[in-house]
Design brief:
By secondary structure, the protein is α/β, with parallel strands linked by helices. The chain contains nine helices and ten strands. The chain is elongated and about 60 Å long. The N and C termini lie close together (8 Å). The mean pLDDT is 97.
Length: 234
């Protein structure tokens, strides 16, 4: 019997699209940074951001490394800035960067109703490849934080799915065995493989196939009203 339902976030609960390579993002952000004594042109800001990502992904022994965007902007601000910037100042810049890059941001249909039902009948938690500096406020914006006080965001650990450690941390926190949990995701390579490597059942949202590299999902669904009935059958 399923006791815990674990969720991916972006592409599963939140319908999102971003354009982090848009020149307009870096033009606006560079202008904002100048008010804080950070002198860096848009083109250099763009290059430093992606150089920081590449450096973080390279300088690690992790098989599935994750970056921390907060650290990247912290380094940029102190490298090109005129003073010491506190944590909130860096967070504000990160959130502005995110808001400038977002093109689509909303919940999928029937998510809130389904989570309300599940919260009353199961233990639930979030396991997401996500930047804490973006995701924490975005959960609050969409009023999802009330459902997920228990959350495991990859940027806090330095590794991401399909690394099974994120799943194992969630199981330990919930005090649930792998056989009594199910993971809800949308990505075959990250969500399906990660869950199955942790011996957790996996249901895929808005996916056309159940199989990937020898791994097989336990079910597919296309509307959140279907999920509660699917959980009862597995």
């Amino acid at each position: 019997m399923i006791k815990a339902v674990l969720f991916d976030l972006y592409g599963t609960l939140i319908d999102i699209r971003t354009e982090e390579k848009s020149p307009e993002v870096y033009w606006q952000l560079s202008r904002f940074l100048s008010y804080h004594g950070v002198k860096i042109c848009p083109e250099r800001l763009h290059d430093c951001y992606f150089e920081g990502i590449n450096k973080a992904l390279t300088n690690t022994k992790e098989t599935h490394p994750e970056v921390n965007v907060y650290e990247i902007f912290h380094e940029i601000m102190h490298r090109f800035g005129s003073r010491i910037y506190n944590e909130q100042s860096v967070i504000d810049v990160c959130m502005l960067f995110r808001s400038l890059s977002i093109r689509q941001f909303c919940l999928f249909e029937n998510v809130v109703e389904t989570l309300s039902y599940l919260q009353s009948n199961y233990l639930i938690a979030l396991i997401s490849d996500a930047q804490w500096v973006f995701t924490e406020p975005e959960l609050a914006i969409l009023n999802l934080d009330r459902f997920f006080p228990i959350r495991f965001l990859s940027s806090r650990y330095g590794y991401k799915k399909p690394d099974k450690r994120l799943f194992e941390k969630a199981l330990k926190k919930l005090d649930v065995k792998a056989k009594d949990a199910v993971y809800i995701g949308d990505n075959l390579q990250r969500d399906l493989v990660g869950a199955k490597n942790a011996n957790i059942k996996c249901l895929l949202y808005r996916n056309e196939t159940k199989r990937y590299n020898g791994y097989e999902a336990d079910g597919l669904f296309y509307n959140y009203y279907e999920l509660r009935h699917l959980l009862e059958r597995i």
